[in-house]
Amino acid sequence: MDRKLRLAIAGAGLIGRAHWMRMVANSACELIGFADPFPSATALAAEAGVPLYPDLEALLAAARPDGVVLATPNALHVPGALACVAAGVPALVEKPVADSVAEAERLAAAVEASNVPVLVGHHRRHSAVLEAARETIAGGRLGKLVAVTASATLHKPDDYFETAWRRQKGGGPILINLVHEIDNLRALVGEIVEVQAFASHAARGFEVEDTVAINLRFANGALGTFMLSDAAASPRSWEQTSGENKAYDHHADQDCYIIAGTHGSLQVPTLRVLEYTGAASWFSPMVRSRVDMQETDPLARQLAHFCAVVRREVPPRVTVRDAMRTLAVTLAVAEAAHTGLRVAIPS
């Protein structure tokens, strides 16, 4: 297929704009329309020079795109993806893939029955940092994985919470932020099979949590701890350490993950390695080095991958079932924080 792919975007908010800007820079595709019922979408469609449709169904019927990016609110992810599957149109659906595991299962079954590819937008899977870290770990350089120390400690400004739902149950950092981190850790370390958590709202006093301490058990036997807070004056989050999103204050010398094995440890995202050259012993010196990596834009790489998925050249890097596992772990953390119990993740 030599012609440009005709892609559409459902949802004309910040993430919809971000996807459009990557389409502008990608010679393999072009935007042919937005679908969004809100009047505020008119300006973005006019800026892009494309039609604006009142909803996804109207866009699918009138424009007949080759693929659709679903940058809609979370509750619309599954209905939108199902509409695309019914129309035979491949979709890139933003994360989280669904509001519940049951809804994600419903979508996964529809995708598998139709053979219409759906890519879930866990865009960090396309990060050069994550890929380099994953290759380092998979190559056995660290030995048998033992321990993970990770964090997403950041401080959201007061005006962030002027939107009421962000102060209420479901609007806290577990469901907004942790889903990204769980996906990262699954990609790096492997499947998570059990969680424990303590949550607090002492910093802001809202109904929703602002700080969570999490324990993780991995299928390979490694154990992990995760510190999550959107009220902590700390830059140890993926956004502020990786530098991949230029909107955030960047701390290039800081890390948010330390992954340790029996022979060495890896710090992410700086990709600093400490390892033994001989027998491992705390009396012996460790050698310091750094994994080479070429910086890239994960959203741009994700779009290039989606174009290949639309052309049926490659399978989706993140399938609905894969994303469903990330969602299940995230929801298990919320359950553990609420009940105080250890929660096993169904296999």
How would you describe this protein?
By secondary structure, this protein is α/β, with parallel strands linked by helices. The chain is 34% helix and 23% strand. Strands 14-13-12-11-7-10-9-8-15 form a 9-stranded mixed β-sheet. Strands 3-2-1-4-5-6 form a 6-stranded parallel β-sheet, with helices on both faces. A hairpin with a 2-residue loop joins strand 11 and strand 12. Helix 4 (77-87) runs parallel beside helix 5 (101-114), helix 5 packs antiparallel against helix 10 (320-339) and helix 7 (173-189) packs across helix 10. The radius of gyration is 21 Å and the shape is globular.
Strand order of the largest sheet: 14-13-12-11-7-10-9-8-15
Query: Which structural class matches the secondary elements?
Result: alpha/beta
Number of strands: 15
Give the low-confidence spans. Answer: none
Mean pLDDT score, rounded? Answer: 96
Based on CA atoms alone, the radius of gyration comes out at 21 Å
Q: Could you describe the largest sheet, including whether it forms a barrel?
A: 9 strands, mixed
Strand coverage percent: 15-25%
What is the tally of helical segments?
Answer: 10
The shape, in one word, is globular
What sequence of helices (H) and strands (E) makes up the elements? EHEHEHEHEHEHEHEEEHEEEEHHE
Distance between the termini: 39 Å
Q: What is the helix fraction of residues, given as a range?
A: 25-40%
